[in-house]
Amino acid sequence: MAESDWDTVTVLRKKGPTAAQAKSKQAINAAQRRGEDLETTKKWSGGQNKQHLVTKNTAKLDRETEELHHQRVPLEVGKVIQLGRQKNGLTQKDLATKINEKPQIIADYECGKAIPNNQVMGKIERAIGLKLRGKEIGLPVDPLPQKKK
């Protein structure tokens, strides 16, 4: 019965402070007074809903003298698309349906707002029968060469 003495208390393990308690101002000050080594790091935009942030090179981009922007479809190409579409009796919606794209894409290409995509340009070329790329813009598309037997 000597093991069940009421006067002695045995502590097996004492839990350390929780993460929130360890980060508090009081805990930091107490650790500094005890002379412990502290490592503090600040999370960049921690706890905020910032998924689409401007990169850290923003200042560098601001100092650039040249304008940085995506190349757009030239108006010349837009006019060729429009003329070729009208020559074939197609509306923007008809052409879009024919090439499996949205009508807004055709509108963007015709007014020069679209960023050129070779796949879309190729589909439009085949649909209207006119070249839209290279030096021969507006000329008829050559049919695929036939294999010689």
UniProtKB/TrEMBL annotation:
Keyword tags: DNA-binding, Transcription, Transcription regulation
GO CC entries: nucleus
HTH cro/C1-type domain location: 81-135
An MF annotation (GO) of this entry: DNA binding
UniProt KW Cytoplasm keyword: no
Principal location: nucleus
Glycosyltransferase as UniProt keyword: no
CDD domains linked to this entry: HTH_XRE
UniProt feature, compositional bias: Basic and acidic residues: 33-42
Region (Disordered): 1-52
Subcellular location: Nucleus
Name of the protein in question: HTH cro/C1-type domain-containing protein
